[in-house]
Amino acid sequence: MKVGIIGAGAAGLTAAYELGKFGHQVTVYERSPFIGGQASTFELNGARLERGYHHLFTGDNYILDLIREIGLENRLRYIDSTVGTFCNGRIHDFVTASDLLKFSPLNFLDRIRLGLVALRLRRTHDWNQFENVTAEDWILKNAGKEVYSRFWEPMLRGKFGDDYYQQVGMAWVWGKMHTRFASRKGIFGREKLVYPIGSFGEIFDVLADKILEQGGEIRSSFSVDAIESGVNNGLIGLKLSPSPSSWTSPEPLKSSPVEDPLKQRSVVRPKENKCQFDAVVSTVSSSAFAKMAPHLPVSYKSKLTGVKYLSAVLVILVLDRPLSDVYWLNVADRSIPFVGVIEQTNLIDSGHYAGKHIVYLSNYVSTSNRLYKLRKYELLSEYLPHLKKINPLFKASWVQDSYYHKVDVAQPIVGVNYSQSIPSHRTPVKGLYLANTTQVYPEDRGTNYSVRMGKIVAQMLRQDLE
Length: 466
Description:
Among the domains are: 2-70 and 198-307 and 422-465, FAD/NAD(P)-binding domain (3-Layer(bba) Sandwich); 96-190, Orthogonal Bundle (Guanine Nucleotide Dissociation Inhibitor, domain 1). The strands form 5 sheets. Strands 8-7-16-17-18-15-19 form a 7-stranded mixed β-sheet, sandwiched between helices. It has a 5-stranded parallel β-sheet with strand order 10-2-1-14-20, with helices on one face. It has a 3-stranded antiparallel β-sheet with strand order 5-9-6. Residues 245-268 have low confidence and may be disordered. Helix content is 33%, strand content 25%. The N and C termini lie close together (9 Å). The protein is globular. It has helices at residues 10-21, 61-69, 97-101, 108-123, 135-143, 145-164, 170-181, 199-213, 261-264, 286-292, 298-305, 370-373, 376-383, 387-390, 447-465; strands spanning 2-6, 25-30, 41-44, 47-50, 56-57, 76-80, 83-87, 90-93, 192-196, 217-220, 222-231, 235-242, 274-277, 279-282, 309-319, 328-331, 340-343, 357-365, 399-412, 432-434. Helix 1 (10-21) runs parallel beside helix 8 (199-213) and helix 5 (135-143) runs antiparallel to helix 6. It is α/β, with parallel strands linked by helices. A hairpin with a 2-residue loop joins strand 7 (83-87) and strand 8 (90-93).
């Protein structure tokens, strides 16, 4: 069968690879000039770095199994994680259970309450009990006002903004916590993370080469403008047009990802502007999918258009020295205009990046947010003074280089009773399937669950076609 796949991220490439195993003729369309989606990479100091920070947990079995299958297991590194929370003017370590007992912004009794809530979530395996309650209401009831206002509220507000943080369902928090717990050995164990030393880009390039070896194609820099159903005895048509990158940047990137010889092997430019397939899998956002397929029934389309997203805004700093000794720093101080400081070189040695230290400043904002509209250097001017709060010795002269990336529809807003609003992978149109981040639940979006989705949809499609 001929199968078209829209999107060359983790879900789309996995679906293409799985279908190619069974002899289906697959063509993947990607509107960016590079593959990998939100885990795509660019060149920095002779290495490849993700545009958006990425790592794996030891329990991410779907993508870890895929990495082993395509022959890259020897590229995986298992590393002790360092996690902290910035609150009340200092970094508080959150690596072990004893660190929790030292969290001075809370009194001792509230620290116990915070720990007991975490332990309860760890031991609860049925997330359905959290479906109909917001995170705010559940935490206030089970941990108290101080635990919520000093720890959880700043996190939720930072992640989802003033407009949405009170709407977030507790099931989403349960999913985030369980993913992290899975990377700890025992209740008091230290968290381990996994990183592919050749970057996530190497995984996608090898996966793309496997697809090409199976007889598939990957076609970049073309948008799918419309999906037409019921043409030529039930085939599904795709209308194509040349497109700019889906990752936008007001400032040019320092290096173009299409100059990478690994990616040159993995992409082919399409010549035609319309193609027909026996089946199509779309991995684009729900809002984009609704525009592509206006003929979808109203009942299904309402689930697509009802989704709200936040955009990811990322500034990457290249420093001549470390900013901190923490890899993942949650910022619980809302006077600081970013929500996370992820210091890549506290996970991977700085020697990998020619001795430079790599720091991501992360934010999730709506498209109407003032920060979303700022250009790179405007954002740097706003962000850099706040780094002195994290490290009083910080000076702007430490910054040797900087990069700016922005991607829309990065984080779906996951509210209460969210499972009832998830569109099915099988759309009402025969042969048309959807696999995107809104369908990852109760876990949060991530490459592991995108790989899982790609496998699930490929299996569905095979069953339906065969």
